[in-house]
Amino acid sequence: MRRKSSATLRGFEFADDHQVRLLQGAEELFPALIQAMDAALSDIQFETYIFDFTGAGAAVAEALMRAAQRGVRTQLVVDGVGTGALPHDWAQRLQAAGVQYRVYSPLGPLGLLLPHRWRRLHRKLCVVDGRMLFCGGINVLDDFHDPNYGTLDAPRFDFAVLATGSLVASASETMDQLWWRMQAVRDARQRRLPEALQALRAASAAQHAARVAQAGPPMRAALVLRDNVRNRSRIEKAYRKAIGAARHEVIIANAYFMPGGKLRRALVMAARRGVRVRLLLQGRYEYFMQYHAARPVYGALLEAGVEIHEYAPSFLHAKVAVIDALGDKPWATVGSSNLDPLSLLLAREANVVVEDAAFATDLRQRLVHAMQHAGRRMDPARYAGRPLRQRVLDRVAFGLMRLALWVTGNRY
């Protein structure tokens, strides 16, 4: 059996052979994604939590079908909670076009009552021809559409990247492994044990050579994965290490923010040693647990001098950070991982980390603009004086989240 690359064995490592382009919202991501799919020659690997066929999402599905009809091997994996079963008409169209698709961990009769069903496929990855990677927080979902709230007044605030370089091979490997493991589970459930064993062998043997094509000055970057086997805490450790090394500034934009004790302490310690720490967080009510369970952790952060800005115009869905963009050691990350227990302890996630001044400055400018023009800074006195009903709801949600983690055997 061939050995895995060091990037797979060690979780991640940096290389200096990348080009990484920042994309904001589906408005920038989808045209680039569709262009890449329309130019695909051999294969497309696609994973997403939500695949919604409303509005702009349909154009992505149609690009997948066009590629499959040209003979491009096209594999799509969607999550069993985020997407569920594909709409019947779209499932038929995808199948007729030759798109191979699978649903990750579909829910059974008991739904999410079974704790192991909380381990979701939350990463958003697309590899085209083994040469380019799309990675970020953006689902296949129209910027102005929400499955629960309908038409939005302003676009969802989110980011992704388009990357080339050796990290593309790492992404392709992990996607290939998941594809074959899902096949093995399907075969085993159908009591096709020889086929299941063959699929497991294919997953173990998945290894992809890096295809590097430079179109500009090289950038230092890495793909950081989170799963429930080898990479349980890679993303959180990457955050903590970068925050611990911060000298001037930390800016984090995160949709569902409920960091554990170690990450909270890292932010507090950074603020106390004079680093300006700014958080851009969800300002709109979306889900009960995520909205209310986050607020009890704000107090200690505000007391330490951390600035909290709540995004107001629409739903904030970003999972990005930039540290010391204007210093000599810039660090930035764009990905799918929230800073909450669902992402950091249970879900499959993927982030790209970039150590490049131009990239970090670009991301910083967009986040600062959002805080200045679309954010409401939280006043510590207003936070402390929030109504009793809200404080009770916050504590109830926080307690329920802790209880849910205890049920899964996790401490946070």
Automatic annotation (TrEMBL):
Entry's EC annotation: 2.7.8.-
Enzyme class: transferase
Reactions performed catalytically: 2 a 1,2-diacyl-sn-glycero-3-phospho-(1'-sn-glycerol) = a cardiolipin + glycerol
Principal cellular location given in the protein's record: membrane
Domain PLD phosphodiesterase: 117-144, 312-343
Record's keyword terms, sorted: Cell membrane, Lipid biosynthesis, Lipid metabolism, Membrane, Phospholipid biosynthesis, Phospholipid metabolism, Transferase
Active-site residues from the entry: H122, K124, D129, H317, K319, D324
MF-aspect GO terms: transferase activity
Pfam hit, one: PLDc_2
Superkingdom, taxonomy of origin: Bacteria
Compartments, record wording: Cell membrane
InterPro entries: Cardiolipin_synth_ClsB (IPR030872), PLD-like_dom (IPR025202), PLipase_D/transphosphatidylase (IPR001736)
Assigned protein family: Belongs to the phospholipase D family. Cardiolipin synthase subfamily. ClsB sub-subfamily.
HAMAP family the record matches: Cardiolipin_synth_ClsB
Main function: Catalyzes the phosphatidyl group transfer from one phosphatidylglycerol molecule to another to form cardiolipin (CL) (diphosphatidylglycerol) and glycerol.
Protein name: Cardiolipin synthase B
Species, as recorded: Acidovorax facilis
Gene name tied to this protein: clsB
